[in-house]
Write a structure and sequence with these properties.
Blueprint lengths: L2 H20 L3 H21 L1 H5 L2 H27 L4 E7 L2 E5 L4 E6 L6 E2 L4 E5 L2 H23 L2 H44 L5 H35 L5 H26 L2 E3 L4 E6 L6 E2 L4 E7 L2 E8 L1 H6 L5 E6 L2 E13 L4 E3 L2 E11 L10 E8 L1
């Protein structure tokens, strides 16, 4: 092999090296480059040019070739075995604002900022006295309308009719007895008056008979009143209801039921309930504040899944894509590694300290809720 052939072989080897660095299958290309270098060395040693060289020239040539080989091996090994690049990032998470849907005055805020609220717990509540009173009123009205509707139905009407009839008969009998008692009292009074006039009894006995007449007359009037009430009640209970009256009462019952449902819903709206295990990021009201519907009360974060935001240079951004798996470690959570994945890589850079930086967003599970917003982390790319 002459000098031109040797130079051509070295050039070919360098080209293969460049291809190896640009190819994703680095290890495969490393073996190819390694083979080409060894082949170049063997050919250089066994070439006609090498045979014509002196010992010093031959050793110098072999030394240069070996040096190139070592440099190539070192560069490729470094590329292969250097750990994946680190990405400095900060934790973030989806935020939600919670609010009351009814107006009122804040009675209590049960949690403070930076606390975690278990799902279903009350975060804040309004004074609910007016809403409770409305619910009670609506429930009473519904009961009254339902009773009215029941009275229109045959089963209850028959029972009440029977009761009304019994009440009427009792009143008639009592009035009849009172009339008889009054007549008897008048007869006794007449006899006692004759006895008194003939000086056969004392005046006191006669006065007693007058009192008996007075009492009997009062009882007769009382039973007459009871009889009149019983007649009116019997008349009311035996009243027939038209289909239109029944339909109207049924509609009243429907409207009354809707009022109860609405009142219960309004009462429920006087409390803000944690929709998930929520981290309180901000509290915007305090006890005693007057508040309108739709005004944010607090900002909460769902910590079941968190995001990580970081920035990388162009070279790293081009080498990463959604789906890459990352191992994440936090300064505040030592000796624990979280696994996540890249979900987005910005296509346009941002200027940070005068350099183009590309935003990278990662996502990881956080079942224990230990990762909190603003925690700093380092993410190591593992594989795709």
């Amino acid at each position: 092999m002459d000098k031109e052939q040797l130079n051509a072989k070295i050039k070919e080897t360098k080209e293969n090296l460049g291809k190896a660095f640009s190819n994703q299958n680095v290890k495969e290309n490393f073996k190819k480059v390694e083979g080409n270098v060894k082949k170049a060395v063997d050919e250089a040693v066994n070439s006609d040019l090498a045979k014509k060289m002196s010992s010093g020239q031959k050793y110098a040539t072999l030394g240069i070739t070996a040096f190139i080989f070592i440099v190539i091996i070192a560069l490729i090994s470094r590329f292969i075995f250097t750990p994946a690049p680190s990405i400095w990032c900060v934790a973030d998470a989806p935020k939600s604002e919670l609010e009351f849907n009814v107006p009122g005055n804040v009675a209590e805020v049960a949690y403070s900022e930076k606390q975690t609220v278990p799902k279903g717990n009350i975060i804040a509540r309004l004074h609910d006295e007016a809403f409770t009173a409305e619910l009670e009123s609506a429930e009473v009205l519904l009961m009254e309308v339902n009773l009215k509707l029941l009275k229109m139905e045959s089963y209850l009407s028959d029972i009440e009719n029977a009761l009304a009839e019994s009440r009427l008969k009792i009143a008639e009998n009592m009035n009849e007895a009172a009339i008889i008692a009054f007549d008897l009292a008048k007869e006794y009074e007449k006899q006692y008056r004759s006895f008194f006039e003939n000086k056969m009894i004392l005046e006191a006995h006669y006065l007693t008979s007058l009192k008996d007449v007075e009492n009997a007359e009062a009882e007769m009037k009382r039973t007459e009143n009871e009889l009149e009430k019983a007649k009116q009640y019997f008349k009311t209970m035996n009243k027939g209801y038209t289909p239109e009256e029944i339909t109207s009462t049924k509609q009243e019952a429907v409207e009354a039921a809707k009022r109860v449902v609405n009142a219960r819903a309004m009462l429920t709206e006087t409390s803000i309930i944690a929709p998930f295990d929520a981290y309180i990021n901000k509290i915007k009201v305090k006890a005693g504040d007057s508040i309108e519907p739709g005004v944010p009360v607090c900002e909460v974060i769902d910590l079941s899944r968190v995001w990580l935001r970081g920035f990388v240079n162009r070279a790293m951004a081009e080498s990463l894509s959604p789906g890459h798996v990352v191992n994440v470690e936090f300064d505040e959570i030592p000796k624990e590694t979280f696994t996540g994945k890249i979900v987005s890589v910005a296509s346009e850079p941002e200027q940070i300290k005068g350099e183009d930086q590309y935003e990278l967003r990662m996502e990881l599970d956080n079942p224990g809720g230990n990762v909190l917003p603003e925690m700093k982390a380092i993410a190591i790319v593992v594989h795709k």
